[in-house]
Amino acid sequence: MKILVCISKTPDTTAKISFTQNNTKFSSDGVQWIINPYDEWYALVRAIELKEKDPSTVLHLVTVGLADTEPIIRKALAIGGDEAIRVNADSADPFYIAAQIADVARQGGYDLIFTGKETIDYNGSSIGGMVAELMDWPYIPLAVKFELNGTVATVVRETEGGEETDEATLPLLVSCQKGVAEQRIPNMKGIMSARTKPLKVVEPVAAETLTSIVSFELPPAKAGVKLIPADNPAELIRLLHEEAKVF
Amino acid sequence: MSVLIFIDHSEGQVKKVSLEALSYGAALAGQLGVSAEGILLGTVGMDLSTLGRFGAKKIHQAAQEGLNHLDAQVYAKIIADAVTATGATVVIFPNNFSGKAVAPRVAARLKAGLVSGAVALPDTANGFVVKKTVFSGKAFAHVALNTPLKVIALNPNSYPIREGEGSGSAEVVALSVTATAPKVKVVSATQATGEVPLTEAELVVSGGRGLKGPENWGIIEDLAKALGAATACSRPVADSGWRPHHEHVGQTGIAIAPNLYIAIGISGAIQHLAGVNRSKVIVVINKDPEAPFFKAADYGIVGDAFEVVPKMTEAVKKLKG
Ligand SMILES: Cc1cc2nc3c(=O)[nH]c(=O)nc-3n(C[C@H](O)[C@H](O)[C@H](O)COP(=O)(O)OP(=O)(O)OC[C@H]3O[C@@H](n4cnc5c(N)ncnc54)[C@H](O)[C@@H]3O)c2cc1C
After folding, report:
1. Which regions of chain B carry the CATH code 3.40.50.1220?
2. I need a surface site. Which of A200, B28, B80, B159 has the fewest CB within 10 A?
3. A232 in a domain, yes or no?
4. CATH 3.40.50.620 placement within chain B
5. Residue A53 domain flag
6. What does the pLDDT read at residue B167?
7. How far apart are CA A235 and CA A232, in angstroms?
8. Measured from the CB, is residue B251 less than 6 Å from ligand 1?
């Protein structure tokens, strides 16, 4: 059994979002970088749990990024996993990234691939589906529960206002969100062993870049709050009805 | 040439997000001088020709009951084939659970540039550039699609439903497909009936840790019911099991953009704001005047939720008669 977990580097959730170079580049000034929370808390931890249940499982991590993503991938290895692969490329185009991951996946002969539900920077929710299509694999997005019995996976996924229980035989690609696992804090032993785990760097395969970011924009600032006295909630309702006209 | 719009449905009903996508697609088709056509896989309990009201000229339907349940792999193949067969140059999906499952597959299959989370019509004056949310709603990016074929997934509640722009009646065309057997077997599905899905809701009442415990949610539910609103909550509330986790909004929950978001007993942490700050009007009820949420609000009351909220409910009921 071989599992591949996709890891992405994102700005910390409290990072101040601003742009430079005439609003064409994200300003990384003073920004702390973290493992994308969905990748770390759910995808990675569930894969580690599967390995704990069946120690013969081989667990690899993959990231597409330049050398500056290495601290993130080492941190992921400190939580768990046998080795990591970094595809030495930088891109914001989902197809390009998916093509790199699909190539690593093909070469590695994996049975199961996990991604997070989306990255908290580009919010594309698209890498998983694209990799699955490129490999002609089934894809179950937005999983809230994942169980494996031999080569048959039972996955509960979120749907609009409901849930669906699916069954599929490996190979399979699943995107993970809350419910799949619980966040783990790396311990000292994990941190020490992560230093010596293999981190392979591979060069990207040729792939097209189908999209490009032209510019960024911040939402307009709010005009300021209109406060209504606590003893007059009816006035608030009147304003919402007559002034804001929201109902 | 055409703009092809994916019409998502469940339990025999065309979803609201599909009407938004149709309206968006029709406007884009007008902009490009081509026709807007819908594609629906499965069967619904309505006359599809009436979707012409939203500007669609044709609706391609693969009326097989077996397709009523979405399978991303099966759907992607059928849609990609239909794109080729109809000569569509742009494909529109709603960026809901279904769109997120299928749009990336279709884009990869056709090597089409994809923008997911679109919030406005493309700028076609100079290339093809689409505005989308990034950084969990904290910013927008303008993304250029550099391919002849383009796929756009439109965020819910980002484009108004427009009726009466087209001829009014769409031609329904049978789409013949040889559907492959799905590799994913659906064992069971549950659907909260009667409730508006949070992502589609126009009005949302949301509660935080300030409500002290699940036993106090009656005041939130009463206000929501009086308004006809959906309910939501902050992350610690879902984490503590006070509310189901599908109500959790924010950076690590669902991102929503309703017309009205009422936040009750929620402090307004940056990760919470990320998921709700695209709401058109934000109301904050909090007993702490220093709560950061007030900075992001349009209207607010500094006060005790347990006293203020029941009075709001009463006022709504009175207003609605
Ligand atoms: C990586 C990361 C991701 C996160 N993602 C999310 C997310 O997606 N969504 C999310 O919500 N949070 C998220 N959080 C958590 C977030 O940082 C906050 O901790 C959380 O939003 C706080 O929830 P709260 O406002 O309900 O509770 P609190 O911060 O405890 O606020 C309770 C508020 O209630 C008020 N209050 C108390 N009593 C009353 C009363 N009687 N009447 C009126 N007001 C009262 C208080 O003044 C206070 O402002 C995330 C955190 C991290 C680190």
Report:
1. 198-319
2. A200
3. no
4. 2-174
5. yes
6. 63
7. 6
8. yes
B198-319 in CATH: which number?
Answer: 3.40.50.1220
pLDDT, tens digit (0-9, with 9 covering 90-100), for A82-93: 999 999 999 989
Is any ligand 1 atom within 6 A of the Cβ of residue B206? no
- Taking the centre of ligand 1 as the mean of its atom positions, its distance from the CA of residue A73, in whole angstroms, is 30
Nearest to A210 among B111, B134, B136 (CB): B111
pLDDT tens sequence across B202-258: 999 999 999 999 999 999 999 999 999 999 999 999 999 999 988 999 988 889 999
Q: Assess A108–B contact: CB distance below 8 Å, yes or no.
A: no
Percentage of chain B surpassing pLDDT 90? 88
CATH number of A135's domain:
3.40.50.620
Question: Which superfamily is assigned to B2-174 in CATH?
Answer: HUPs (3.40.50.620)
Tens of pLDDT, residues B133-143 = 999 888 999 99
B120 neighbors B28 (Cβ within 8 angstroms): no
Q: What is this structure's pTM?
A: 0.93
Whether the CB-CB separation of A131 and A113 falls below 8 Å is answered with yes
Question: Cβ of B311 under 8 Å from any chain A Cβ?
Answer: yes
Domain count, chain A: 1
pLDDT digits (tens, 9 = 90+) for B50-77: 999 999 999 999 999 999 999 999 999 9
Q: Is the N-terminal amide bond of A186 cis, ω within 30° of 0?
A: no
State the residue range of the domain holding A203: 2-217
Q: Is A225 near chain B, with CB under 8 Å?
A: yes
User: Is residue A167 in a domain?
Assistant: yes
* Nearest protein CA to atom 51 of ligand 1, as residue: B271
d(Cα B143, Cα A216) in Å, to the nearest integer? 9
Cα atoms found within 13 Å of the Cα of residue A141, Cβ hemisphere only: 28
List CB contacts of B126: < 8 A, sequence separation 6 or more: none
